[in-house]
Design goal:
Blueprint (H helix, E strand, L loop, with lengths): L1 E2 L6 E2 L1 E5 L3 E6 L1 H5 L18 E5 L2 H13 L4
Length: 74
């Protein structure tokens, strides 16, 4: 996953989606940049681990499909 939040595009991390869970592992360079983290549920100001994990639910599947629709990937 890449972001354009800073002055130049930067790799934020790796997002892996399976049938049971979604895991985002942040790139070490991104964590060192002090740019904001990403979260679907939690307050990113309280995140301290180099990853986050969510169980896959209907809400996550809806969000993935919704964003694909917005990008005309359906």
């Amino acid at each position: 996953m890449w972001t354009a939040i800073g002055a130049v595009p930067q790799k934020m991390g790796t997002l892996v989606l399976s049938d049971e869970r979604m895991v985002m592992t942040y790139d070490e360079d991104y964590l060192a940049s002090d740019l904001p983290r990403m979260s679907l549920i939690n307050d990113v100001a309280t995140e301290t681990t180099p990853f986050f994990e969510y169980p896959v639910t209907e809400r996550i599947i809806f969000a993935i499909n919704f964003f694909a629709f917005l990008r005309n990937e359906n």
